Amino acid sequence: MTCCVVGALTYYAFVTKNDFTVLGSFLLVLCTSLLLTMVLCFVFHSRFLRILYCGLAIMLLGFYLIVDTQMLRGNSTVAFSEDDYIIAALLIYSDIINLFIQILALLAESKD
After folding, report:
1. Domain tally for the chain?
2. Is residue 73 within 8 Å of residue 13, measured between CB atoms?
3. Are 18 and 26 in contact (CB under 8 A)?
4. How many helices (H) and strands (E) would you count in the chain?
5. Which of these, 23, 52, 61, 72, is most buried using a 10 Å CB contact count?
6. What DSSP element (H or E) covers 3?
């Protein structure tokens, strides 16, 4: 499932004309809402909040995967230089691993 999501998002990042690297403020708001949802999950122990948290995390990581892929490609407003290939690879790797973990958590929550 993660492979399909990563493949689809990477394909979309390569073929789209939209520049997602300028969405920094939107991603910051999404991170803030994710943090608030995580705090609410710890306080209320609600299954709905855990599913909401996983869904928001998957959406956020999907956007970050698109942004990092476009930055690696170099045809965007913000791009990695040729010397930043290690950082770019680590960012994309961490996006994929975290996306995998959140998809597993969502599947585990929906199974209960």
Report:
1. 1
2. yes
3. no
4. 4, 0
5. 61
6. helix 2-15
In sequence order, the 6+-apart residues with CB closer than 8 A to the CB of 51 are 106, 109, 110
Number of Cβ within a 10 Å radius of residue 57: 22
Tell me what pLDDT residue 104 has.
95
The runs of H, that is alpha helices, within the chain are 2-15, 24-44, 47-73, 85-111
Token readout for 93 is 């790797």
Domain that holds residue 39: 2-111
Instruction: Give the chain's length.
Output: 112
- Give residues with Cβ within 8 angstroms of 36, minimum separation 6: none
Q: Is 65 exposed, middle or buried, given 0-12, 13-18 or 19+ CB atoms closer than 10 A?
A: buried
Taking residue 84's Cβ as centre, other Cβ atoms within 10 Å add up to 13
Q: How confident is the model at residue 112 (pLDDT cuts 50, 70, 90)?
A: low
Contact call for residues 97 and 65 (beta carbons, < 8 A): no
Task: Enter the pTM of the model.
Answer: 0.87
| CB neighbours of residue 62 within 10 Å | 18
